[in-house]
Every structure is written in structure tokens, then in C-alpha cells.
Write a structure and sequence with these properties.
The protein is an alpha/beta fold and 274 residues long. The chain has a single domain (6-273), classed as 3-Layer(aba) Sandwich (Rossmann fold), CATH 3.40.50.300. It contains eleven helices and six strands. It has helices at residues 18-25, 39-49, 62-76, 97-103, 116-128, 146-154, 159-172, 185-190, 192-203, 220-225, 249-254; strands spanning 6-12, 31-33, 85-89, 109-113, 180-184, 272-273. It has a six-stranded parallel β-sheet with strand order 2-3-1-4-5-6, sandwiched between helices. α2 (39-49) packs antiparallel against α3. The chain is globular, with a radius of gyration of 19 Å. Keywords: Transferase. GO terms for molecular function: transferase activity. It comes from Luteibacter yeojuensis.
């Protein structure tokens, strides 16, 4: 008989260590973790179709909706019969803390965060590495500048802006206490073992000895499709790499103080921050 399966969720900002965390966790043979999955997007479609948008939704109870959505997650991973613990990743999860708690009471969400200026700088570095190509991230628009790209990314519906606001919503929301952990990129790359041990403790999972010098993960096919090679590439060794920013000084400075998690006064829900 297969062991009882548990589900945990990874969310947070892009270029903030989500893929790195998944690559580390994936070393544990009990775990399955990877890059962003389509589960959250599929769930959004199902929620919409089970709402009053569908004329027949009057015949769908909340209990049926809950069972349907929980089953979606469980069945998506049902083909993997060996893994005990599943980590599903999506930047949408931070905006759906209430939904996750309804489906999986006591749910645990790890949100990866990083200084916003460095998130944007990391994105711009990827763009500058591909001068003869254009990315889906910017809707294949060839007439952009570093300034317009930053505006597009930080728009409330942009890749960075949405994730930032969703993480903020989760941090200040009613389900933050005991259900949310913020893992800073700075801690993860500078003290990987201590950081991952804190994640294990938060999740209530038994510790596994990870090898932080031999991490393996890439999603080259996906990255090529969106026109941003290297987006999900993880270096073999977990370490902090110091480098000067590529963003113009005034742009970098504009986002240098957006780390809301860094001010203890903001942590009204006593969220664990690593």
C-alpha cells in the first residue's frame, strides 16, 4: 500500500530561489519538486467554470467544488506512485492561501523572496544575454528599453509585479501565521544548509543530508520556448555570487527599499522569515 501522500507548495518572486530550492529538495528521494507546474492555472479555469459563469453551477455545492479541486491536485500527481511528498510550484499560490487552506487544512507554503532591485536586475541580465532574440515575457515586442521592460515586469499583472503583490497579500493575510514561510534568496545562497533545515522544520519533514555542491536542474526546452535561456538554470554549487548591477543606477535605486519582510514591524502575523 502506497504511503499517505503530502502536498506542500512553493511560491514567491521570480529569480528569488524557487527553482534552486526545488532542485535542492529534489535530491531527497521522498520528494518530488520541479519548476512551475500548470496545476494552479488549471485550477483557476475549473474554479471559474464551477462558478456562476456557468449556468449550471447552481447544482454544484461548495463540498463538490472542494472535492473537485483537491482531486485535481491529487490526480495530477497520481501517476507518480513512489513519491511521498509533492512540492507544487506556482506564483499564484500566494494569492490563493485561503483556497489552499480549504483544500488542504494546515497547508504549508514556502515563498521565496529577494531584494526587488536584484530580481529586476537578474531579469535584465537574461535579456542582455540574448541580443539577437526576443522573449515571450515581453510579448515578443522588439521595441523595448530597459526602462519599459522594468515597467512591464513591475506592472500589477506583470511577471514580477503580480508575484510581489501576491506575496505581500499572503504575508499580511489571515492564513499567514503557521502556514507561510518566507525564504530569502540571500539566506539560501549564503547559508544553504541552515536555510533548508529551517524549511524542513517548518514543513515537519525529517531531515535529509543534501549535497549543496552538486545541484542539478535545468528546464532548457521551456526557457527556449519563452525566449529566455537560463531562466531556470541552477548552478551546481550553491553560493553567493557578487556582481555589479546592470540596471541603470536610478532604476536600481527606485526598487532598493521594497523588501517589506525586512522590517520587523511589518510582521504582524509572526511569519517565519529565514
Amino acid at each position: 500500500m502506497a504511503p499517505q501522500r503530502r502536498f506542500h507548495f512553493i511560491s514567491g518572486l521570480p529569480r528569488a530561489g524557487t527553482t534552486l530550492l526545488a532542485a535542492i529538495l529534489n535530491q531527497n528521494p521522498r520528494f518530488r519538486a520541479g519548476m512551475t507546474s500548470p496545476v494552479a492555472d488549471i485550477m483557476g479555469v475549473v474554479v471559474a467554470e464551477a462558478s456562476t459563469r456557468n449556468d449550471f453551477a447552481f447544482d454544484v455545492t461548495d463540498e463538490q467544488r472542494t472535492a473537485l479541486l483537491r482531486g485535481l491536485v491529487e490526480n495530477f500527481y497520481s501517476v507518480d506512485t513512489e513519491t511521498e511528498v509533492i512540492f507544487d510550484m506556482s506564483r499564484l499560490w500566494c494569492s490563493r492561501m485561503g483556497l489552499l487552506n480549504a483544500l488542504f487544512p494546515g497547508v504549508k507554503v514556502v515563498a521565496c523572496v529577494r531584494q526587488l532591485a536584484w530580481v529586476l536586475d537578474s531579469m535584465e541580465r537574461l535579456v542582455q544575454k540574448q541580443p539577437v532574440s526576443v522573449s515571450k515575457v515581453f510579448r515578443y515586442d522588439t521595441n523595448t528599453t530597459v526602462y519599459s521592460r522594468v515597467e512591464a515586469l513591475t506592472d500589477p499583472r506583470g511577471m514580477v509585479g503580480f508575484a510581489y503583490q501576491a506575496t505581500k497579500e499572503a504575508f499580511y493575510g489571515e492564513h499567514a501565521r503557521d502556514h507561510l514561510l518566507l525564504l530569502t534568496y540571500e539566506s539560501l545562497v549564503r547559508a544553504p544548509e541552515a536555510s533548508v533545515r529551517a524549511v524542513y522544520a517548518f514543513l515537519g519533514e525529517p531531515w535529509f543530508e543534501h549535497d549543496f555542491n552538486h545541484i542539478q536542474y535545468n528546464a532548457d526546452e521551456f526557457d527556449a520556448r519563452v525566449g529566455m535561456p537560463g531562466l531556470h538554470t541552477v548552478r551546481a554549487k550553491v553560493e553567493a555570487v557578487e556582481r555589479p548591477p546592470v540596471l541603470p543606477r536610478e532604476v536600481f535605486g527606485r526598487f532598493a527599499n521594497e523588501a517589506f519582510w525586512a522590517d520587523p514591524k511589518n510582521n504582524v502575523n509572526q511569519v517565519t522569515i529565514v
